[in-house]
């Protein structure tokens, strides 16, 4: 009888410990999803600013259509990639590539804009570039917060005995992927000051 009670108490303690691990895994998983949602908010803000930037620049850059077209196409591709993103590594890599292309297109536009002092002095352009610069910073911070959340989730999930609990649930089974940056992106943040 005493052994039965002791075994029952040990089993109950193990069950409660397993539930605690599961709940913490869910908490960390939700933090990862929330961190990615913050990236989405900032990327959408960036996508919303670009058409306004193009409209202001169009008046001065009528003969620079190729540069403007690259930005518009890159924005469309990045926006489409964001809409298709899920937790798979492939969709995150597609988003990263589209964002990289957009960043490079914006850098090309900024280089072109430097040749037009009237445009650089425009109050609308100054306001838009300031907003874009602020948004770029927020994207960087959001990506860092996301990568930190992913690292915390993966580290907790991979430790023993947590790995046994996470293996039982499809939502928790796979490691989350961090958003990687190309070396060129790290070295050359888009300049938007005029």
UniProtKB/TrEMBL annotation:
<dbReference type="InterPro" id="IPR023353">
    <property type="entry name" value="LemA-like_dom_sf"/>
</dbReference>
<dbReference type="Pfam" id="PF04011">
    <property type="entry name" value="LemA"/>
</dbReference>
<keyword id="KW-1133">Transmembrane helix</keyword>
<comment type="similarity">
    <text>Belongs to the LemA family.</text>
</comment>
<protein>
    <recommendedName>
        <fullName>LemA family protein</fullName>
    </recommendedName>
</protein>
<dbReference type="GO" id="GO:0016020">
    <property type="term" value="C:membrane"/>
</dbReference>
<keyword id="KW-0472">Membrane</keyword>
<keyword id="KW-0812">Transmembrane</keyword>
<dbReference type="InterPro" id="IPR007156">
    <property type="entry name" value="MamQ_LemA"/>
</dbReference>
């Amino acid at each position: 009888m005493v052994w039965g009670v002791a075994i029952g108490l040990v089993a109950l303690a193990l069950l409660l410990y397993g539930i605690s691990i599961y709940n913490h895994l869910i908490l960390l998983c939700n933090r990862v999803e929330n961190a990615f949602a913050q990236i989405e908010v900032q990327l959408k803000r960036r996508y919303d600013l670009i058409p306004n930037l193009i409209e202001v620049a169009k008046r001065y850059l009528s003969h620079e259509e190729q540069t403007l077209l690259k930005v518009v196409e890159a924005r469309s591709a990045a926006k489409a990639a964001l809409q298709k993103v899920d937790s798979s590594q492939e969709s995150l890599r597609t988003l990263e590539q589209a964002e990289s292309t957009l960043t490079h297109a914006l850098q090309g536009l900024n280089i072109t804009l430097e040749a037009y002092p009237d445009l650089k002095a425009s109050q609308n352009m100054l306001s838009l570039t300031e907003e874009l610069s602020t948004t770029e910073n927020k994207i960087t911070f959001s990506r860092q917060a996301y990568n930190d959340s992913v690292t915390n989730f993966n580290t907790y999930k991979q430790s023993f005995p947590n790995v046994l609990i996470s293996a039982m649930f499809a939502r928790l089974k796979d490691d989350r992927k961090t958003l990687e940056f190309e070396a060129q992106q790290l070295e050359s943040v888009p300049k938007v000051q005029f």
